[in-house]
Amino acid sequence: MKLPLMFHRRLGLNLGLTLSVLPLLCHAQGEQRSQVLPLPLTGPAFTVANEAYSAYSRKDYDLAIAKAQEVLRQRADAVELRKLITLAEQDKYRRDHPEHHPKARPKPGYLDGSRALAAYANGDYDHSAAFARRAIAQAPKNLDYRMMLIEALQRQQRLEEAEAATEQAIGVVGPEPALTRRLQGIHQQMAVAGAAKGYEALARGDNDAAVSHARDAVQRFPNEIAYRRLLVSALIAQQHYAEAGSAATEALALQGNDATLLAQRGQMRQRLGDQRGAQQDFAQALAVGNLPLREQASLYAAMDKPHEALERLNQARDAGELQPGDEVQIAYLLIQSGDDRGALAVFKRADRQKALKPKEAQDAAYTAMRTPDDVQAIAYFHRVLDYQQAGELPMSEQQVFDTRRAVSDLSRVWGLTNTTTYRGSSTSNGLSGAPSRNNNSVQNSTEVFWRPAGYRDARFVELYGRVTDTLWNKKSGNDKGLDALQGAVGVRVKPFTDYNVMAAFERTFPLGDSNVNGDWLVRLGYGSSIGTDLRVDVPSWWTSQLYAEAGRYLQDKRNYFNSEWQVGRSYRLDRISPRLVVFPHVVAAVDYDSKMHSEVDALGHESTSSDNAGGLGVGVGTRYWFHETRYKAPQSYVDFSVQYREKVFGDDSAQGVFARMTFSW
What we know:
The protein is α+β, with helices and mostly antiparallel strands. The chain has helices at 5-8, 15-19, 21-34, 43-57, 61-74, 79-96, 110-121, 125-138, 143-155, 159-173, 177-203, 207-220, 225-237, 241-254, 259-271, 275-288, 293-302, 306-318, 326-336, 340-353, 358-370, 374-389, 397-411, and strands at 414-422, 441-450, 461-473, 486-493, 501-510, 519-530, 540-553, 558-572, 580-593, 612-626, 636-650, 656-664.
């Protein structure tokens, strides 16, 4: 069994590896900015500094100097306040000695630039940017003011504005190294922010937005492999597999031994049917050797190596590297390894820790059915149907019916079948018994069976009892009624899930004063059918059912063989009832009975000619299904079939009208 798709297509294969790049990039930007940032003033020092600047603005130089000295007493490292003292002393001297400095004025923009720096130091980046713009308006070619504006905008993540401010500065001041480096840093910061938005969009399922952000990041920094991984993941989420494969190939051209990209391209090749290429990519990704253990497990699973995959996943669990949901992946690997019992135990443990998702519950149900654990399988199937009713698990109408049919099969521990036949044997309940020596008769058989161990994934054991009688016989003098009444008890076994082979051993005995002789009977039957169950997705469908049985009466030393093959098309009669089906068909039948010898009547005419009979013909059957619940498909039916056959070889019993009516509960 292939690992369910849910494990192979975990789109977060490279998410952890790529996200780890983001803090590094952001840290690099932080280091670049930290080279120009002063130690910020806080608390009382910041308040007094503002008072110093305000006093200077009012030309109260003495108060400005006093306030600045107070700040320096608290914070000796406040270099800008030393500059303010120097400037205030100079301006005070000029004011008091105008004859020496008649036209002296402060540098343009100094005051607003100082305020911008103070606001920045206090974390008020919005006001810092505003003061910086006022300073730039006064001194357009001052690089410090422009850098202050760019810094404040970057701190607010107003990256487009920071980019525009930097480009404007380059246009006015020129391509200063500080500006070109800053522009490159802004572009990188924009790419990092865009990539982060791309991963956020991918996580919430907005795949179109994720692709857009990823393309923008790749366009800005085409050599950054992390952004290309994001683009591949987003295209995979969009189910654009061919485009995702091409994007992975382009990325691998830049970095040929990237394990994550190799794994992703392998996934795309696998989806597109290139199994050989996918296996090569998976093997190369594993050879690189830098993937996390859980991702190695995913690749081994995709390479159909469940034992290696399970080993890696268990190592990841021991190392504490499992993520939410990985416990369920262990169950899927155990399924692929053929260990359904172990997988069911993992499903149940994961379900106790956190309720299984709808699809996981569905897989757990089928795993329990194979284990076999009928009770657990029924419980999971009930949840599956509840999920479907709540709209949490998309299922077609036929899938819902098939799930209900599984519940019906699993929950059946006993049953009753009554069959009445005119000429021919019953093939409705698996093993029919030997044919009548006289074909022109009406026989009735009622059987009750019990499965002591349950369904067991169609590998069940049945104990049964049966009463059979001949109700009418064309030949006078043949036993019928109480004279032909017989019983049987036995056991039958269906040992295979996938093959409808059944063996039985039973004891027949007379009932009452019946003339029937008791005997031991050994039987072996085989059946194959297509479309014999009710369909709800289409109004008509092809149907075929083949049945063959061989047996031997040990005391009578009598051997027999019955077979019948019907092929036709079933039609649901919705106008009458959606549970009523009509089945026109062609039929072929072959019988053999070692005691079916030639007989001569009173006039000396031979009425039989051999111990075998074969015929072909046409027929029509009708079946009405009933006895269903919300969780169970119809478990009971009434079936009537009539056929006309022409003899092909052997005894005359192969020719004529044949009829059968069955009630199954």
